[in-house]
Amino acid sequence: MSQVTKHALGSCVAVTQFCTFCDRENHWTSQPMIGDLPAGNIHLSAAIYFSEASFAKVEEVLSTLNVQGISSATYYRHCDSLLQPTVLSFCQ
User: Would the pTM of this model clear 0.90, i.e. be above it?
Assistant: First the structure.
């Protein structure tokens, strides 16, 4: 017998399966991970940031389509810690 748990990590779905018979655990994610961050979440942040789109408008579109996205806190954290430093490193 196995127990399955699912949860969303922004735009990523993560599934954990635990076999109660052999005590083995399997993990699956719907997209590659970059460290502990789902790549699709970073790509979504980059697409919004580099296209100069409004996060609020993109969030509204995703919500209307019933598509799981990222939170504004995640978006701004990606901008501050990943996207802006990358741009600045190329400008120097």
Answer: no
